[in-house]
Amino acid sequence: MTAGTLIDLKNLTLNELSALLAEMGQKPFRAKQVIRWIYGRGVTSFADMTDLSKEFREALALRATISDWQPEVVEDSRDGTRKYLFRLTDGQTIETVRIPMEVERATLCISTQVGCAMQCSFCLTGTFGLVRNLEPGEIVNQVCAAFKDGPINNIVLMGMGEPLHNLDNVVKALQILFLDDGFGYGARKVTLSTSGLVPQMRELGQRIRVNLAVSLNATTDAVRDQLMPINRRYPLKELMAACRDYPLQPRQRITFEYILIRGINDTPQDAKRLVGLLHGVKAKVNLIPYNEHEGSSFQAPTDESIEVFQTYLLSRDIVAIRRSSKGQDISAACGQLKGKLDKAQGLLPAPVRND
Fold it and tell me: 230 has which bridge partners?
């Protein structure tokens, strides 16, 4: 095989890797050994896999490769947030954000597509259009690369792209991240965020366990239609029905992300309607002040409106957490770093694909 046709092992689930090794005459347990070297120890060279025979390693090197990412650009915030921009083999770029949490913990926000087809009016990534889906290995490699800067306690699929628009590759990436002999993330440590692709939400719940977050951002179809065009296909009634049907474990809740935008969705009436929407759903709400960026007409809410909104939800026994904006002194919001570099290089947004 030539270098361009080698199989990237980071694209393979355990079953797929086992099948590949079986073709080479190897026993199934060898797949777990290889997994431990790649993800448990971060090895990218077959020569370093010293508990495998030399003959096996040489044969494997003729069939496969192990990709290894280094960020092209890194920006660090005063609050500890770190933004990575990765250049892919086809020249496209994606972003990943390492977010510091309490007690020396960290959450990693990863991308699932180059660009996005959802065209949410408050999101900079939507202006790029959808270029292509990320392969499983490209999703997993964001975690591998960020791990070089220290442990990651939680993963959120909330970066560039709509994860459920790339469902097959996302499910495979999750299966890889969940491997006990690899990173060993449990389903409770990983959260997938969707804009509300209802059929794919139902399919996700049948295929794999993962925390679900729904980007809600409005309490009426009229407002959500404007903010999130996907609502015209799957309006609030259908979306909330899918949320009620989503399989949850005991003590597990669906997270509803609600970006507060001044004068659009941050009124006391919105808070009251939100309580009604969440009736019958095991839910918690993340209240996220809008992060203003160049070219957007939207404004961040006032502190007073945030407090009134949150207080009303709490008074109705709804878990409502105010999320502070991190990395405001760098290009931390989704798409900002890519947008800044694309603008500097004179690149135009891609045409939007909705397939």
Answer: none
